[in-house]
């Protein structure tokens, strides 16, 4: 009898193990069934257009199961887009309380939480989170901080961030932003020399050269103004309309009109219509009106432009007094048309304006608004 009991003990133990395992599986299955049921309830609320109840129900589920982090991140983004920042913040905070989140997931949640704070106007909270992420060498946090400092116009904070973490500023977009932060700060504290620090930061950056030329021009240092603006004209001719008249004035004040003419002659082939018009004026003043008409006519055939056409009409009028009145009337109509067109357009988002903005009010990109090109442009 005793031997039988010893034989039955392993069987009993095995049976208990199997039953226990089945019981655990049953509990897990029941828990999953309950969670699925709760999800279904939340979705039903949404489908029945009871959005507040449905969204609140899904938030509460987060405390039951954190297995579907991506789903909750998507839900939080939806809240943020709806302007319900408190709910988005609540979801992200609850996610951060969950155990076993890997480093990348935690970073993603912190980035999203910082964006919640920015949209909600809680800029100090956003800055605190983003600075912590910068310490972890997160480049995305740098971009968000620069957007934040653009919003608050705290240029020096952005400059300090760059000087401490220069290795994280590898993107062209960020380097252009840094250059413009230096420009804004130098204008604020009235120290143009500060802009020289970023002259070689990134190829194609426009504003430091333009602002340094402008500052030199205002203090009547025509030699330096010519140096900066000539470099800018050759580097990025799209921005020539901003300073071409003042550049010409610099050459005139120094008695170097011939050098200005040579510069235009070098750039007239590939430059915009404004350079062509300026060069044609010089030809007219040098009694070479027919050459000017030929040059501009040839250019307009290749690339039609309403401003060039207007100046062509002006030259034809000066050569033929018999049709002067008719041509002047036509030119008045052309000028009226030109007046309705915006002078500047963003190459990133298409925003257009009569005023130059170094940071696009629409997409917030730096130096993407340029003088208009094409039929109505410069």
Overall description:
With 378 residues, the protein is an all-alpha fold. Among the domains are: 85-93 and 106-200, Tetratricopeptide repeat domain (Serine Threonine Protein Phosphatase 5, Tetratricopeptide repeat, Alpha Horseshoe), CATH 1.25.40.10; 246-301 and 309-331. 69% of the residues lie in helices and 2% in strands. The protein has 17 helices and three strands. The protein has helices at residues 2-47, 51-61, 69-81, 85-96, 103-120, 123-135, 139-152, 155-164, 172-189, 207-218, 222-235, 244-253, 257-267, 273-285, 289-302, 306-319, 324-339; strands at residues 344-346, 352-353, 369-371. It has a three-stranded antiparallel beta sheet, with no helix packed on it. It is elongated. Mean pLDDT is 81; it is low at 1-19. Pfam families: Zn_ribbon_LapB. It comes from Pseudoalteromonas denitrificans DSM 6059.
């Amino acid at each position: 009898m005793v031997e039988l009991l010893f034989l039955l003990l392993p069987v009993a133990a095995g049976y208990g193990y199997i039953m226990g395992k089945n019981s655990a599986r049953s509990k897990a299955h029941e828990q999953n069934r309950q969670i699925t049921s709760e999800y279904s309830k939340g979705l039903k609320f949404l489908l029945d257009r009871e959005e507040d109840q449905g969204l609140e129900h899904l938030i509460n589920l987060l405390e039951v199961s954190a297995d579907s982090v991506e789903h909750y991140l998507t839900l939080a983004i939806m809240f943020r887009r709806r302007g319900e920042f408190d709910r988005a913040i609540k979801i992200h905070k609850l996610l951060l309380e969950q155990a076993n989140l890997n480093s990348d997931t935690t970073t993603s949640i912190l980035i999203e939480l910082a964006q919640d704070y920015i949209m909600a106007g809680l800029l100090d909270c956003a800055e605190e989170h983003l600075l912590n992420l910068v310490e972890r060498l997160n480049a995305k946090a740098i971009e968000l901080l620069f957007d934040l400092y653009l919003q608050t116009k705290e240029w020096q904070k952005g400059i300090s961030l760059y000087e401490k973490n220069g290795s994280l500023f590898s993107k062209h977009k960020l380097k252009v932003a840094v250059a413009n932060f230096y420009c804004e700060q130098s204008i604020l504290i009235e120290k143009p020399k500060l802009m020289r620090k970023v002259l070689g930061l990134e190829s194609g950056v426009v504003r430091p050269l333009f602002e340094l030329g402008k500052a030199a021009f205002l203090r009547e240092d025509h030699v330096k103004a010519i140096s900066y603006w000539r470099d800018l004209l050759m580097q990025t001719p799209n921005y020539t309309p901003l300073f071409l008249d003042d550049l010409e004035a610099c050459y005139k004040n120094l008695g170097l009109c011939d050098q200005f003419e040579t510069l235009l002659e070098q750039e007239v082939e590939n430059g915009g219509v404004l350079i062509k018009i300026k060069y044609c004026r010089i030809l007219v003043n040098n009694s070479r009106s027919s050459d000017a008409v030929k040059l501009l006519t040839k250019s307009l055939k290749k690339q039609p432009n309403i401003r060039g056409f207007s100046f062509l009409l002006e030259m034809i009028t000066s050569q033929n007094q018999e049709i002067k009145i008719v041509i002047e009337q036509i030119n008045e109509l052309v000028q009226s048309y030109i007046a309705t067109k915006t002078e500047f357009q963003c190459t990133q988002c298409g925003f257009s304006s009569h005023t130059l903005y170094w940071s696009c009010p629409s997409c917030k990109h730096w130096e993407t608004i340029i003088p208009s090109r094409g039929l109505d442009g410069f």
